[in-house]
Amino acid sequence: PAQISSCGHLTLDGSQSSGGGGRNLEYGWSLEGQGNDEITAVLNAAINEARVFINGSLMTSGSTYTFKLTVKNFLYSTAMDHSLTVTKARDPLPEVTVNGPREGKVFGMNAFYVTAKAKAASCSSTKALTFAWSVRCTQGDSAEAAKTRVEATTGYKETSTKFALKVDSDALLAGRTYEFTVVVALKANPSTKTTVRTSVVVKWSPLQPGIVGGDRTLGRDSGKLVLDAKSSTVDPDQASGDLYCSWKCEDKSSGQPCQSYLDKKLKTDFPNQCVIEINSLHFEAEKSYLITSQVSKGSRSAQSSIVLTVVAGKPPAVTILTPTLRVVASNRVQLKATYKSSVKPVNVEWVCQQEDDYRYINLSDASLFAGSFEEYRGDKKSVSVKVLKRNVLTSGASYMFKLNVDDGSKVGSSAMVVSVRSGPTSGSFEVSPTTVEQLQEVTMQAPRWVTDSDAYPIKYAFGFLDDSGVFQRWKTQTDSEYKIAVPPGYGANKILTLRVKVRDFFGSVKMMDKNITVNEPSSIDESHVEDLMEEGLKSAEDTGDFSDVVPKLKNFLKLVKGNSKVSESLARKVSNTTVTSLVLAVKSTSLDEEKAKPIFDTFLDVQSAYIEEASELLDGFDKVVKASVKSLDKDTIKETLGWLAGVSAKANHKNDASVSKDIINTYESLADGLLNDVDLGQSAVVTSPANPSVEIKVAHTLLDEAVAADDSSDATELDFGSEMASMCEQRECSPGKICLGCQVKIITYKEDYFNDQSPDKPNILPDKIVSVSINNPETGDEQSITGLTKPFKLKFKTGNPASGQKFECFYYNEGIQKWSSDGITSIVIAGELQCSSTHLTSFSPANTKDNGTQSADKTYQVSFVLSNTTWDEKYSDISDSATVALKDDIIAEVVKAYSNDSSMKSVAFESFQDLNGKVKVTLKMIFSASNTDPAAGLRSSMADGMLGQYAVDPATLDFAQVKAQGEKDEDDISLIIGIVVGVALLVVAIALLMAFLVYRSKQAAKVQSMHSSVPYERSHENKAVSSDHEMTPV
C-alpha cells in the first residue's frame, strides 16, 4: 500500500515481476533516502525473496519511506527497478492497496477492474468500510468529458461504491491517460479515510487485417474477382472513423508489378477502396499473383496478403470465411468455407499443406474432429465446415489448411493459416504441507511461469478435483501463491488432488496437479466451524470483498455433506450461511466469468433440502449463471437443472413475478452455455431426471428446414421460414467477423413458470410451452426477431380437444406479463394446432371454449379423385401405416396449396373411398367468409394434374358448402314455425269461409220467406224498377 495505519504492518510483494525465462528471478530489496538500520537489516535478510514483511513498530508515524526492488534474471541482467513510497499515518486509517492493469497499461478494447484491497486498522474499534471511486483524464481528453463518459457506463453505475471498480470496454478512449481515485473510509466515522490514486494508460489495439477468402484459385473465365479487405479486418477498439485501404499486386514469377493480360503494356492498378472488383481476364492462366492490402484507421495501419493462383476455365469459386486465425491449443478450431459450383462436386476435401513453414496433421483421420457439416445448395453458396477437437494442434506451431472442391472437370481451392499461441510454459506447482487434517491450511505456489510477450498478465486458478474428477475452482488471481484450509480427501486413502490452471491473457491454459493426504479428525468441533464461518462472513461484509470467504464456504459444504460426524443443525446452518454469503457476494461487485464461476460452483454444493429462503437465492443465482455462461458445459448444465428443481420447489413462483422471471432467465442462460460446444450442423439436448419440468435444446443451423423442439415423439415442430433462413446466410456478424448459420435456443417447459395474474388468463397447456430465440454465433448475443413478413410457424401435437373445447395459440407478452393471442394466428390441421407469428418469444396452446364455427366462417366438404392411385381395401383402415402416410401427404399438400391464404382456418381428413377403382379423397375445410372462391388454392395446385407427387383428376374437385350444426338447428326451428303458422292461417281461413257460407245461407232463407208472405209492390215514386236492381240469391 501507499500508506499504512498508525498500528499497521507492511508487506512488500515483488512476485508479479517477470522476465525470468522460466527460471527463478533474483530479488534485492533496499531502503532509499533516510537511513533505518533495523529496516535495512530486514531487507538484507530477504535476499532473493519475492516478499518481505516489515513490522510496523520499525516505522515512525508521520514518516515516509521509499523502498526499491531490483530484479535480475539468470543472465544477471537487470530486468526491473521499481520504487514504492510508503507513509506511516499518525492515525488508525484504513490500509488500502490499489491494483489495476499490469504495468498500468491496457488496450482500449479491454474491460478491466481497478481493485482496492482494503482493511480497517487493527487498532480501529470498527471495521466496516465504504468505497467511493472517481476518474479523470490527465492526458489527451478533458477531465469532464472522461468523467461523464465513464459515469454513464453500466460498470461504473454498478461498482462505483464497491471495492472493485469495473471499467467497461467502451468507457475510455485509446491514446489517453486516466487517473482513478478511491476514497476508503470507516463506515462509522467517514472522516477517517484513506485516498489512493493510480494511473492507467489506454493504448490503441493493433488492427487485425485480413482478405476474405484467403489464398485461392481463380478461374480466368470466372468473370470477376472480388477482393474484400473490410469484412475480415478487425478493429478491436471499434473506434469511430472509416477504414482506408490500398492495394498492391505482384507477379510471383517475375517479382514485378502485375500487368493486365488484356493489354500487357498497362500496369494493373487497383482502386484505393476496401472492397474492389477486378475482371478475371486481366490475369494470366497458370500464374500466381501476390496481392497485398494495406489497411489504416487513424494512426494505425497493418497489411495482409493472399496468393492468387489463376487457372483456365471456371472452377468452383471457394471462399474461406476466416483467412487467418490465431488460436490457443485448448480451443476447438473451426475450418469454415463456402463455395459456388454449377454442378454438385464429385469431391469436397479439407487438407493440411505439407510445407516447410507449417506443421502437418492428417485430416483424413476422423478422430481429430469434433464435428463437420457439408451441404451442396445449388444456386446458393454451398457450405463445408470441419471442427478440430481441443488440443489437436500444437502450441507454438502454425498450420495451413486448404479446401479443394472438384466439380469433375476443375478444382477450386482456398486456404487459411492457423497460428497457435505458445501459452504459459516453464513453470511448476508446489504444495506444502502434503499431509494435513480437514480444514487445516496448505500453501500452493506456481512459480516461474512465462508466456508470449503480448499475452500477459498470467492468472492462476487454484482449486481441487471433486469425487467426480471435476475441477472446483477456489479463486483466480494474479498472485502465484494461495493459502487455504482444505476440504476432506476422497477414497480409502483420503487423497485430495489440488490443481492450478495457469492462463494467459488470450486464454491459453496449462494445468498441473499435486496430490495431498487429508485425514479426518476423530471429531469435529462444530462451534469452531461456526465461528470460522461467522468470522469470514463478517470480514467480507466489512471490506466488501467476498473473494476469500466463498472458497472457505465451499470447503465447509464439502465437510458437512454426507458426514456422519456432523449434526443436521450444523449442516443446515452451513447451507444457509453460505446462501447468505453468496447472495451478498453477488451484490458486492459486477460479475464477470472469473468472479462468478466460484460462486456458481458453490451454489451447486448447497443442499436444497436445507435452504430456507429460495427467492433471494434465485435472484442471485440468475446473475451468476449469466456471468458464467462461457465456462458452462453439458454435464454442469445437467447438474444445474437437477439442483434448480429442488430450489424452485421452495419458491413461490406462481404468485411472485420476480421469482418466475429469475427461473426463466436462468434456463435461458443455461441454454446459452449449451451453445458453447455446438458448431454448424450440430445440436445438443440436456434433460435431468431430477427436473422433468424443462428440456433445453440448442442447434447451430442454416434454418433451411424444420426443427423439432425436443427429442420426444410428440415434439412441437418449428418452421422458421425463408425470411429467417436468409438471415442465417454468410454475413458479417460483428465488425471484421464473418459467420454462417444461426444459433437456435429452444426450451420446452412442462410447467407454467410464466407469471400471469390476469383474471382472463387462458387455460394454457403447461406441458406444451416452448420458448424460441436466436443468438448471433459470433458474439453470443440474443437477436431480436420481430416484424417478419414471412411468419414463423409452430406445429403443436395437441390431439383432439374435449367436447365443447378448442385449441388456440398464445404467446407470452413480457411487457404486460400475460398470455396473449394478439397478432398470432391459429389453424387446426389433421389434429395439429399450427401457430403463425411474426416474432420469436414463448408460445403455448391453450384449451378454450368452443362457441361453434364463427358466423363469419364457412365449412366445406371437399373431394377429389387420385387418378393414378388404385383402390385397396387397406385405405378403409385409417390405422394402416400406408393409409396414414397417404393421408398425411395429402393433408400436407393441401396445406401447401393454401400457404399464402390466411382465410383457411382448418383442414381435416374425413375418408378415402372407392370410386371406380380409384381413391376418392374427402376432406372438411373451414374458411372465413371473406374468401369468395375457397376452391382457388386447390384448383391452382391441381392445374397440371398433380397434387405434389400424386396424380389427380382436376375435374373431380368438388367444394360443397355444409352448414354448421348450429345453423341447421335454427333452420329446422324456422321451418317448424313456418309450417305451424301456415297451418294456423289455413285453419283460420277455412273457419272464416265456413262462417261466411253459413251467414249467406241464413240470408237466403230469410229472403225466400219474405217473398212468400208479402206481395211485392212498386212505390208511388218508382213505378217501374229495372231488372238490374233485382235481388238474386247466391
Automatic annotation (TrEMBL):
The chain crosses the membrane at residues 975-999. Residues 120-549 form the PKD/REJ-like domain. It is found in: Membrane. Residues 1010-1034 are annotated as: Disordered. Its main location: membrane. Keywords: Membrane, Receptor, Transmembrane, Transmembrane helix. One of its GO terms (cellular component) is membrane. It comes from the Eukaryota. This is Receptor for egg jelly. It comes from Paramuricea clavata (Red gorgonian). The lineage of its organism: Eukaryota, Metazoa, Cnidaria, Anthozoa, Octocorallia.
